[in-house]
Structure formats: C-alpha cells, structure tokens
Amino acid sequence: MIEALKKKLSEEVSKLHHELTVTLPAEIRRAVEMGDLRENSEYKAALERQRLVQARLGQLGSRLTKLSSIDITQISKDSVGLGSKVVVIDQETKVEETYHFVFGDAIELEDNHVTMASPIGRAMLGKKKGEDVVLKLPTRNRTMKIVQLVTIHAAKPEDLK
C-alpha cells in the first residue's frame, strides 16, 4: 500500500516537474513574444499555473518524505492501524460498514477511506477484532463492533480497494 502510494505520487511529481521545466517555460516565452505583458492573459495564466505547480510539487515532496519515514514493522499485526481494512456493525442500527485506514494527510480520499487522524480513526486505533468501538459524536455516542480486520501486513491488493 505504501509503496503503491509512493509510486503514484512519484509519477505525479515527474509529470509536474516536466510541466514546470519544459511546458510552462515554453508557454511563457510564447506569451512574452506576443508583446505587452500587462494585458497578456496567456502570460498571466502561465505564471499562475507555474505557481500552482510549484505549490503542488512542495506538497508532494513533503508527503513523500513522510511516507518514507513510515516503518511498516512498527504497525501492529493484530489491531487497527495504518493500512487496515475494518468491517464494523453499528450496535444500534445493525448496519455493516467498511473502513480503510489511510495516511493522515491523504488528499484524494475515496469512498470509505478514513485517515488515522480522523475521529473514527482515533477511536479505532489499536482495537482488535471482536472489540467494541465508541465513537463520540456531538449529539450521542455511537457504538460499533469490529467484525473483520485485515491489517496492512495481511492485506492483498483487492483488500485495499
């Protein structure tokens, strides 16, 4: 999971770096050749895109650094942690829900993905199969029972989707 995320982010870094060093300079040169820069929308758009690409590259670099510092051997093999897939049953409604625990600063969360820093992530962290989890909500407490747990160590690629 972590290696796949690193690969995905590295590919995005490559594309953005190419855009920053090849595509955008060419667009800026072309816009400069058109003349008066004060009223040149192509020039302004290229500069704005350049700033956005630089900011995104900074975010990705920071995220890759954080991902590289994760020691997978420190993640529990029998309780909820980063990369876990957890199936719970709400004790009141008896509705089954599945959660996938992802890195804390995940930007593109998919359905049922939660971060370890979220309230539900903090409530479930360290819990084991069969344990109850109490999620404290503003209006009430919600109790869920963990009925299935697949940790990052036992996960197959299809478990993480």
Chain-averaged pLDDT: 85
SS field, number of helical segments: 3
Major sheet description: 5 strands, mixed
Strand content: 15-25%
Structural class: alpha+beta
Name the poorly predicted regions.
none
Q: Summarize the helix and strand pattern as letters.
A: HHEEEHEE
Overall structural domain count: 2
Principal-axes geometry comes out as elongated
Give the quaternary arrangement of the chains.
Answer: single chain
Strand order, sheet with most strands: 3-2-1-5-4
Query: What name goes with the CATH superfamily of the largest domain?
Result: Transcription elongation factor, GreA/GreB, C-terminal domain
The CATH class of the largest domain turns out to be Alpha Beta
CATH level-3 fold name of the largest domain: Chitinase A, domain 3
Radius of gyration from the CA trace?
A: 22 Å
Strand tally is 5
Distance between the termini: 10 Å
Helix content range: 40-55%
CATH architectural label of the largest domain: Roll
Describe this structure in words.
The chain is built from three helices and five strands. The chain has helices spanning 2-33, 41-68, 119-124, and strands at residues 85-90, 96-102, 113-115, 132-136, 141-150. The protein is α+β, with helices and mostly antiparallel strands and 161 residues long. It has two domains: 2-69, Transcription elongation factor, GreA/GreB, N-terminal domain (Helix Hairpins, Orthogonal Bundle), CATH 1.10.287; 73-160, Roll (Chitinase A, domain 3). Strand 1 (85-90) and strand 2 (96-102) form a beta hairpin. Strands 3-2-1-5-4 form a five-stranded mixed β-sheet.
